[in-house]
Write a structure and sequence with these properties.
The complex is a heterotrimer of chains A (about 800), B (about 100) and C (about 525).
Chain A: H1 4-7, H2 13-31, H3 34-50, H4 59-91, E1 98-103, H5 110-113, E2 117-121, E3 139-150, H6 154-157, E4 169-173, E5 175-186, H7 188-211, H8 218-237, H9 241-259, H10 266-296, H11 303-312, H12 317-334, H13 343-346, H14 352-361, H15 366-373, H16 375-381, H17 391-406, H18 413-433, H19 437-464, H20 471-474, H21 483-497, H22 503-514, H23 528-553, H24 568-583, H25 591-596, H26 606-611, H27 633-660, H28 674-678, H29 683-689, H30 693-768, H31 775-796
Parallel strand pairs in A: 1-3
Antiparallel strand pairs in A: 1-2, 3-5, 4-5
Chain B: H1 4-23, H2 27-52, H3 56-86
Helix pairs in contact in B: 1-2, 2-3
Chain C: H1 2-25, H2 32-56, E1 66-74, E2 79-85, H3 89-107, H4 117-136, H5 140-149, H6 151-161, H7 166-195, H8 202-212, H9 216-233, H10 242-249, H11 252-277, H12 279-305, H13 310-330, H14 334-365, H15 376-379, H16 381-394, H17 402-414, H18 422-451, H19 457-460, H20 470-488, H21 491-512
Antiparallel strand pairs in C: 1-2
The chains are: A mainly alpha (about 800), B mainly alpha (about 100), C mainly alpha (about 525).
Chain lengths: ~800, ~100, ~525
């Protein structure tokens, strides 16, 4: 390792060596992080090959592989947390080291690759006086994947310590090929998502053994669950943007296969196609964006290099903006942001556990995760610091409100949850858009658990109701029949609605504070519009979840099945997830709260410590420094009251409805709607006479209005304009294709080819007349020609 | 002008031959007309040979006579075959090469 | 052994199939099994020699021609019998050596109407020799001869064993390609005279063109001739119309060979001959080639969307995919050309597989009308899966081979070789990226209509429809495995091609500065 001496420069060599030993001891897990995704991918192959012959049809292989991955992920997480805690403890003493890069024999012979050297780098000079401690810097392990092109820019690039990942692979013949590495990057963010993916995946595996029991393609189902888990973990651990693309697309294709799991029915395969194609549209942005970044970062796919260069200002702001806008398109498709969200509700055509795993907890957050991975690019590119609004925050805000509004008018419980997912993903993007990195990641974390819990709960309900998801026709009053499902669903909903002290409260509150609008919160700017969007969504979320709960679990049963509680393989995952939905929020309690209830101050904002790489400050430097918003008690109270109030008014609305007709699901002419009477009576008289004016306001105007015209209009727009546009693009490109094929290709281009042939033939036809077969005519021509020739010669000479 | 009479005579003979080739329908007559053309050439060859006091003209004339004999042999054979197949030696009817 | 490979290795590899043809001449037509065996043995012998060559190839030195044979051949015009392999030809030789034996295995139970295995296999073997020869020839005349040798067997294959409009398709294919070759030959001859070098050796010509200082105008004209020859073979956008007809009418084996190997003769010609010998010409042509390439990408995709016939759709998709290859070449960067070569191999494997599957579908259903098909996954689940994997590979899914022919091309277009218009190529890049969406559109549409859903009433109870049979497995599994392996280990090809391609890239690097 020739770079070793250069790498070991700096003042903290002694301390660094000390730490290096510790890191070597603990680094087995880091070095072998690839096992986490290799196991499920092996399981995919094994299930495909042998699954059908096994007693449990392959499910056991999947569960074993994912459990092992889960244990590895847990161990990695504990190691990581231990390291970070160490660094925090040491950081107080002012030691100066971090950025651990293990270089696994890059470019060397294969034998060398096994030797893994942990090198402690001196961090770049720290601005902002943080004491030079880069806590939570990524551990990168890379080997050469392939080499391509000569490294023309090598001289410009330099092989300095900043690019340890791209040491030129000397091929021994004078030239040096440009090596593109493959590897794993373990840091707080990836460890966090490792935990989410493996946990939810394991629970979904267990749940599925019951839920899809006896399915026509049980084995394939488990094979693809494994493949999905592997692809997702691969993407999570990606150390380069190229790997990110690979993982990104692979999860997309697993999603395609699993949405279309019951492909005999056309709507299902249509939904699968729609999901894949919509994502492909966004992928244009991904491909272009990553290409831009590749060249901007002096030909590097390394996430770490790109981040460092974006932070240090080595990449122009305008280039970063272009890249960020392009990547945003990818986020919009993958993470269901307006206007590319329409595939996500349709994706509910897949089996429910798949919806829980892929379309709620993991794959759809890939976009959010990607923003987090390349946060400096977005942070600098969109100029988040000190801003008021930017593309990301705006799209996030629009999505969160738009998605939430749509959730009101759904009959299908899974679609309510799907739109809710859209809305919450918007929340995460909003958070990242306003510079609240940790808040966004934390919301991703908490949301995964409670939304998976809700989806699996919905699955459990439908399992009991003849596989129907129609809340109005086939549900109602189920709380009596399915107490466990009911309880866990309530817990999940409360967490989603952000009711303290459940998980959603902590993360949502942090995002609202992060917008920096509420007095005393600070933050990275003053994002008023996103903040208002966030508040509206907080209220709306509570309202539509109350509606869904009422329609499903309260009132009288309206279906024709015999509902019953599901078996343990379904209820246990529900209980686990509900439990997590309760507790995970405490991972990131704000310090004032911790001190207020008398806990040691080290319990505060643990999630931030563990996940955020040195407060993001290490990679977002300069005068546009990244700051954390401080929590605000008043904001928390207001947001909670808004949510509770909205939930309560919906509750009241349905309570009154129930009083009029136990089986009704909405106000109609028979049950008597305030709205239908308003037109008939004089308005002024009405206002005076009605005592429950507030009631009317809540039930009919706000809730009814939102639920009725506004949401319906939004849904109409969604179905008839946005969705229609997608269809239109499809049909019109076919029409254009047909036109081009028929007229230009077959007519003009091919016609020209045929015409050259016909021309030659026509010419031949003309000449054919000369060929009469009359020998005397030939002779005449011959003599005539000879005469002419003679004449020519005589005249010419 | 010693040579002119021969050349004019040959030219007349040639034209008669050409006329015959072009107008006669009878294959044998066509062959005979070709003979006339060849003999016109022979007269020229001999005349020029005499003019230049060179033997080449006579040698070529002998060659032409020999070739003409061969040609008449082959030609008559063809005409005979045509007659056998078609019971006619009218060359206007032999138009199998019509395109 | 080593010395045998050095002196006779390539010759043995190229001509082993012809020996098979000789042997087959003396076997009566009725002995079908024997014919198949001889054909298989001939190709396998060729492949074994090829594998030995691959094994003894010095991969550290892939930029240098190896196993070179250089003997006098036609002294009058100084054409020499000059063969050699380097990193650019190696992957394509390997592809040919793989595909043709698999085609023969597939033919075991699938000799197309009207039968006559003897003639059919003999033509296949002649094709084999022609294709291998093209990839290893280092002399322009020799190259031309091999390039043209390929035409005739394919002409007969389409014309005799083809579909309903086989004669039309065969003649179109033959004439169109010959038309281009004529211009190419003119360029070759002009090179010979203009450089005054009295040689057709590719390497020497490249040096002479620089030392003699051919003007840019001359180079542009000469490149134009080669462009017609190679571009029609590729085929590039306005010259592609022979392809759908030829593919649709050709028997399955013909389609597979055509798609897997023959289209690469054109792109290989660009990389091997046109670019290194005429760099200034290439630089002038590159923007136009790029333009035609991206038009081809979009246009091919639109063409696919309008198709109702499965085989025709796959044929049109070739236009789009070869568009990526040509765009990669047009960037004139080592990155782009590397990707282009990868794209050639990937397209060969993937589209070859698609044609195999289409052929098997046709054999079972007797139609390829997409709207009459459906439910392949129910009636022949394994074949449905294979179709699924192959379409995924074709639309450029990472983790499968197609991706490495697509994304690096898009990447390279962001920064084409110095001296080319960057903005223009960035526009090309975005258009090419849009092409990936369209590709996903038509391929998934194809997959949905053929594999998903329930079988149509017409075929629901058809007893002839069965799953993949043994010979199909033998023919397909190696290709499928390669598609997956290359997807994850792209270095298998990039490591081989990188060095010679870098040499080409250096030329343009120097030219641009």
């Amino acid at each position: 390792m020739s770079q070793l001496p250069t790498l070991l420069a700096g003042a903290g060599v002694f301390a660094a060596e000390e730490t290096a030993e510790a890191v070597v001891a603990q680094s087995w897990l880091y070095d072998n992080a690839w096992l986490v995704f290799t196991l499920p991918s092996a399981s995919f192959l094994l299930i495909l090959l042998f699954g059908k012959r096994l007693p449990f049809k392959g499910a056991e292989i999947g569960i074993a592989a994912v459990s092992t991955s889960f244990i590895l992920a847990l161990l990695t997480a504990f190691t990581w947390i231990g390291d970070v805690q160490d660094q925090i403890a040491h950081g107080g003493e002012g030691e100066e080291h971090s950025l651990v890069v293990t270089d696994a024999g890059l470019g060397g012979t294969a034998g060398e690759a096994a030797e893994s050297v942990a090198v402690a780098l001196t961090a770049e000079a720290e601005e902002g006086g943080h004491g030079g401690d880069v806590r939570g810097a990524p551990v990168i392990n890379e080997v050469e994947w392939f080499g391509i092109g000569t490294d023309a820019n090598r001289a410009v690039l330099g092989t300095d310590a900043n690019q340890p990942n791209q040491a030129p692979a000397d091929d021994g013949h004078g030239g040096s090929s440009f090596s593109i590495p493959i590897g794993t990057q373990v840091d707080g963010q990836s460890v966090m998502l490792l935990i989410v993916v493996t946990t939810v995946s394991l629970l979904v595996h267990i749940y599925s053994t019951d839920y899809v029991h006896g399915d026509r393609r049980f084995t394939h189902y488990f094979a693809f669950l494994s493949l999905f888990t592997a692809s997702m973990l691969f993407m999570v651990l990606a150390s380069s943007t190229l790997q990110l693309i690979v993982g990104w697309e692979l999860v997309g294709v697993c999603s395609f296969v699993l949405i279309g799991h019951w492909w005999e029915e056309k709507p299902n395969s249509d939904a699968a196609l729609k999901a894949f194609l919509t994502n492909r549209v966004g992928d244009i942005g991904l491909l272009v964006g990553i290409t831009v970044l590749y060249f901007a970062a002096d030909r590097s796919f390394s996430i770490n290099t790109i981040n460092e260069m974006a932070t240090s200002g080595a990449i122009e702001r305008s280039t970063l903006t272009i890249a960020a806008v392009c990547l945003m398109a990818a986020v919009m498709s993958k993470s269901g942001q307006f206007i590319l969200h329409t595939w996500l509700p349709d994706a509910m055509a897949g089996p429910t556990p798949v919806s829980a795993l892929i379309h709620a907890a993991t794959m759809v957050v890939a976009g959010v995760y990607m923003i987090g991975r390349l946060y400096p690019v977005f942070y600098e590119g969109f100029g988040i610091a000190g801003g008021n609004i930017n593309l990301m925050a705006f799209i996030g805000g629009l999505t969160t409100v738009g998605g939430g509004a749509l959730a009101f008018v759904q009959r299908d419980i899974k679609k309510v949850l799907a739109y809710s997912t859209v809305s919450q993903l918007g929340y995460m993007v909003l958070a990242l858009g306003v510079g609240a990195y940790t808040a966004g990641m934390f919301h991703l974390f908490t949301h995964a658990f409670f939304k998976a819990c809700l989806f699996l709960g919905a699955g459990s309900v439908s399992h009991a109701c003849h596989h129907s998801f129609d809340m109005k026709a086939d549900m109602g009053g189920l709380r009596k029949y399915m107490p466990i499902t009911f309880t866990t669903f309530i817990i999940g909903s409360l967490a989603l609605a952000g009711i303290p002290p459940l998980a959603g409260f902590w993360s949502k509150d942090e995002i609202l504070a992060g917008a920096g609008v509420w007095p005393g919160t600070g933050g990275n700017g003053t994002f008023t519009i996103p903040f208002i969007f966030g508040l509206i969504t907080a209220a709306m979320t509570a309202a539509y979840m109350t509606r869904a709960i009422w329609l499903t679990f309260f009132g009288d049963y309206r279906g024709h099945a015999h509902p019953h509680e599901s078996g343990p393989r379904i209820t246990i995952p529900l209980i686990v997830l509900a439990g997590l939905a309760v507790v995970v929020g405490f991972l990131n309690m704000p310090s004032p709260f911790v001190s207020a209830i008398g806990l040691p101050s080290s319990w505060a904002h643990k999630f931030e410590d563990w996940v955020e790489p040195e407060g993001v400050a290490s990679f977002v430097g300069g005068e546009n420094g990244f700051t954390h918003a401080s929590p605000s008690l008043s904001l928390a109270i207001v947001a909670t009251l808004l949510a509770a109030g909205a939930g309560a008014s919906v509750w009241l609305y349905y309570k009154r409805l129930y009083a009029r007709d136990p089986k009704a699901t909405e106000y109609t002419a028979e049950t008597g709607s305030i709205m239908t009477q308003v037109g008939a009576l004089a308005v002024g008289h009405k206002v005076l006479e009605e005592k429950y004016y507030l009631d009317h306001l809540y039930t009919d105007v706000i809730v009814g209005g939102t639920k009725g015209p506004v949401a319906r209009a939004a849904y109409w727009t969604n179905q008839n304009i946005l969705d229609r546009m997608v269809d239109l693009v499809g049909t019109s490109s076919v029409a254009v294709g047909r036109f081009v094929y028929k007229f230009i290709d077959q007519g003009a281009v091919d016609g020209a080819v045929n015409a050259s042939g016909s021309l030659a033939e026509a010419f031949g036809q003309i000449l054919r007349g000369v060929q009469t077969g009359q020998i005397r005519q030939y002779a005449t021509l011959l003599f005539g020609a000879a005469t002419v020739l003679v004449a020519v010669f005589i005249i010419a000479v | 002008m010693f040579i002119n009479q021969f050349l004019i005579f040959a030219a007349v003979l040639f034209c008669i031959g050409v006329y015959g080739v072009l107008t006669r329908k009878n294959g044998v007559l066509v062959l005979m007309s070709i003979e006339l053309i060849l003999n016109a050439v022979n007269i020229n060859l001999v005349a020029f040979g005499a003019l230049h006091q060179h033997v080449a003209g006579q040698v070529f004339a002998l060659f032409v006579i020999a070739v003409a004999a061969a040609e008449v042999g082959v030609g008559l054979a063809i005409v005979l075959l045509i007659y056998r197949n078609r019971r006619s030696i009218n060359v206007a009817e032999a138009n199998l090469l019509k395109g | 052994m080593e010395s045998f490979l050095d002196t006779w290795g390539i010759t043995a590899m190229v001509f082993a199939p012809l020996v098979g043809v000789l042997a087959m001449m003396f076997v009566p037509e009725k002995e079908e099994e024997l014919h198949k065996t001889i054909a298989l043995v001939a190709t396998v012998v060729s492949a074994i020699v090829g594998i030995l060559l691959l094994a003894n190839f010095d991969y550290g030195n892939s930029g240098v021609l190896q196993f070179v044979v250089d003997r006098s051949w036609i002294d009058v015009i100084s054409a020499r019998y000059s063969l050699g392999v380097d990193g650019i030809s190696l992957p394509l030789v390997a592809l040919t050596l793989l595909v043709v034996p698999l085609v023969i295995v597939y033919s075991w139970h699938h000799i197309p109407e009207p039968g006559n295995a003897k003639a059919f296999l003999m033509l296949t073997l002649v094709l084999h020799t022609g294709m291998l020869g093209t990839f290893v020839a280092q002399d322009l005349v020799l190259f031309f001869v091999f390039f043209e040798v390929v035409l005739l067997p394919m002409y007969f294959m389409i014309g005799v064993w083809g579909g309903e409009q086989r004669l039309y398709a065969a003649i179109k294919f033959f004439l169109y390609t010959l038309f281009g070759s004529a211009f190419m030959l003119v360029s070759f001859l002009a090179l010979y005279w203009l450089t005054g070098s009295q040689t057709f050796d590719m390497v020497e010509l490249a040096q002479r063109v620089q030392s003699e200082g051919l003007t840019t105008t001359e180079q542009v004209l000469l490149f134009g001739g080669m462009f017609l020859g190679f571009g029609i073979k590729v085929p590039m956008f306005p010259f592609h119309t022979w392809l759908p007809d030829a593919h649709t009418q050709a028997p399955t084996q013909g389609s597979v060979i055509l798609a897997a190997v023959m289209l690469k003769l054109g792109t290989y010609g660009f990389v091997r001959i046109a670019l290194p010998i005429l760099p200034q010409g290439a630089q002038q042509w590159a923007p136009w080639i790029g333009l035609l390439a991206v038009i081809g990408i979009i246009y091919g995709a639109l063409g696919c969307l309008a198709q109702t016939d499965m085989k025709r759709l796959i044929a049109f998709s070739s236009v789009a995919h070869m568009g990526y290859v040509m765009l990669g070449i047009a960037t004139l960067t080592d990155f782009g050309i590397n990707a282009a070569i990868f794209g050639m191999v990937a397209h060969g494997l993937i589209t070859g597989m698609l044609f195999f599957v289409a052929g098997s579908v046709k054999e079972r259903y007797h139609t390829l009308e997409i709207k009459r098909l459906g439910g392949l996954l129910i009636q022949a689940p394994r074949m449905g899966w294979i179709l699924g994997i192959t379409t995924m590979a074709s639309l450029g899914l990472p983790g499968l081979a197609g991706f490495w022919g697509e994304f690096p091309v898009i990447l390279a277009s962001w920064q084409p070789s110095a001296g080319l218009n960057t903005t223009l190529f960035r526009v090309y890049m975005v258009v090419a990226a849009v092409g990936t969406v369209l590709a996903a559109g038509y391929l998934l549409w194809l997959l949905q209509r053929t594999a998903f859903g329930n079988p149509t009433e017409e075929f629901a109870d058809d007893p002839h429809i069965h799953d993949t049979v043994f010979t199909e497995w033998v023919a397909w599994v190696p290709m499928l495995i390669l598609i997956v392996v290359l997807g994850f280990v792209p270095s298998l090809i990039f490591d081989v091609t990188n060095e010679p391609v870098s040499l080409v890239g250096d030329v343009f690097e120097a030219l641009g500065n």
